[in-house]
């Protein structure tokens, strides 16, 4: 699938067409939440939002283009909210907890976006968008660790940031899927990440860091 397949055929310019786009987006989210990407198709989306399939194709060439637009909006919302947190005067652990609270808040406010996140994993055309988001998150974490005193070589601190992000992502999604966003699995993982963060800024290098974890 080429990048052109993910572009809207026409941008909404009037309130009426914007309302149609929003109906398509909300129907897509609802269907994703109910059955996942495997059961999602343009006919089902059009039927759910009570529009003719031709009206849907006026704006989107396929279901992937709708999911792509939703994913862009979702990730931009995350980036805007987290920037305010990163720029705050909170301590390291407090910033980490604030980021966690922010994601939980978005999940509650935008019902269905958890299913969208899962869809991004299985649609190859969206992997580039997800990878760009991951790169930005890792870069932000490196800056955060540097700000709070971590002086490791760039390769090592980046590797730690990647581990923190990827394990956070997997455990967060797993706890949400089980309906226990703040259950034992997440609380235990959160305490572990707190320990890693504080140890990273305390230790001179990754070797001392690893030794401390083994003690």
From TrEMBL:
Alphabetical list of PROSITE patterns matching this protein: HTH_TETR_2
GO molecular function per UniProt: DNA binding
Does the record bear Membrane in its keywords? Answer: no
Which keywords annotate this record? DNA-binding
Write one Pfam family the protein is assigned to.
TetR_N
> Carries keyword Secreted?
no
Instruction: Tell me the DNA-binding residue spans.
Output: 41-60
Q: Which source organism?
A: Pseudomonas alkylphenolica
- InterPro entries from the xrefs? Homeodomain-like_sf, HTH_TetR
Q: What is this protein called?
A: TetR family transcriptional regulator
Q: Domain HTH tetR-type spans what residues?
A: 18-78
